[in-house]
Design a protein that fits this description.
- With about 350 residues, this protein is an alpha/beta fold.
- It contains 11 helices and 12 strands.
Length: about 350
């Protein structure tokens, strides 16, 4: 069983108010009520939301639509006024806010101001970054913003291996950025953000799993977490990314050389019950697997969040998921709950 980081856990627990606790009870209750009744039940509002700072990115990772510049939806930046208006509506129920969907958050010039705003509302805040923009000044502002969790994506311990997936990236900048955060946490006597290296395990880097643990210890980050890679064309794996080590893969190899997902899809989804995603331009989509926002459940530029959460689009999507989840395209390659682990 993985160790619990008590500082991070206590920090998260400190954000729980009575209203957030009661909202969480309602959401959890509706999940089990739906399973019992075999039909959608939705009480309460999301416990967690992902807000997209931008779709822009400096890297060109081969399995990412942002990196591939392959979006059919527009590229842009989340506007602070729209963000604060939405947070004002939902902050009393919302416990956990993830500043990430697609793109590199630090490319948005207002990103840390938005973190600061959400933190002031007592919301636990997190983001994921490739760490190329964590210079000394940005690292200091990050710690001062009140950000609670910083995920640094680092998929290799040498430049040669790192750049095979993080195309266009520089591992020295990543390490420097992580060290800057660690330094400013000490300088400012801050326990936050909780910092961990996230290592996406793919075939080119699977031999460096032990090396990244040593690097994390040397840099001084709080933890290392490993993540299995979502491969879009997983049947044939044209980019040769699926690891040879079974525990590092979301897919099993068939006798004919093709792959199929290990995860069996049940007609239920906890993520759908307690969380959702808001794109930079206000579209509400079910989860992070809908990268191109093809399942638009509402638009916060024309409706309030709470209206969207209970609208007909949401009801139809929830109903379709409980009837036949395997027929929903974004669900077919899902491995919710089994894709990230600590060692």
């Amino acid at each position: 069983m993985p160790e619990i980081n008590w500082n991070d856990t206590i920090n998260l627990a400190s954000k729980i108010t009575f209203k957030r606790f009661w909202n969480g009870i309602k959401v959890l209750g509706s999940f089990y009520a739906g399973r019992l009744l075999k039909k959608p039940v939705q009480w309460g509002y999301p416990v967690s939301i992902s807000f997209e700072p931008t779709t822009s990115c400096n890297l060109r990772c081969p399995e990412c639509p942002s990196g591939l510049r392959a979006f059919t939806r527009p590229t842009g930046m989340l506007q602070k006024d729209f963000f604060t208006r939405t947070i004002d509506e939902i902050h009393k129920e919302l416990l956990y806010l993830i500043f990430y969907f697609q793109g590199e958050p630090y490319l948005n010039p207002d990103f840390l101001e938005m973190v600061k705003y959400a933190s002031a509302k007592g919301i636990y805040t997190a983001t994921s970054t490739n760490a190329h923009y964590l210079n000394d000044a940005a690292a200091k502002r990050t710690v001062e913003s009140g950000l609670d969790r910083l995920i640094i994506s680092i998929d290799g311990t040498t430049q040669e291996v790192y750049q095979q997936y993080r195309i266009g990236g520089n591992i020295d900048k990543v390490i420097e950025g992580a060290k800057n955060i660690v330094k400013w946490k000490k300088e400012l006597n801050s326990k936050t953000p909780f910092v961990f290296f996230q290592f996406l395990v793919v075939k080119p880097n699977e031999h460096q799993v032990e090396d990244i643990k040593k690097m994390a210890k040397a840099v001084g980050v709080d933890e290392v977490r490993f993540k299995t890679a979502q491969v879009y064309d997983y049947e044939t794996d044209p980019n040769n990314l699926i690891p040879t080590t079974d525990k590092f893969s979301r897919y099993k190899k068939n006798t004919d050389g093709t792959y199929t997902p290990k995860n069996k899809l049940a007609n239920r989804c906890w993520k759908m019950q307690h969380a959702n995603v808001i794109t930079w331009d206000g579209l509400v989509v079910p989860c992070c697997f809908d990268k191109d926002a093809t399942h638009q459940l509402g638009n916060l530029k024309t409706q309030s969040f709470k209206e969207v959460w209970n609208n007909d689009n949401y009801k139809q999507f929830r109903s379709g998921l409980m009837k036949s989840r395997k027929n929903i395209d974004i669900c077919s390659n899902c491995s919710e709950g089994a894709s990230v682990w600590k060692d």
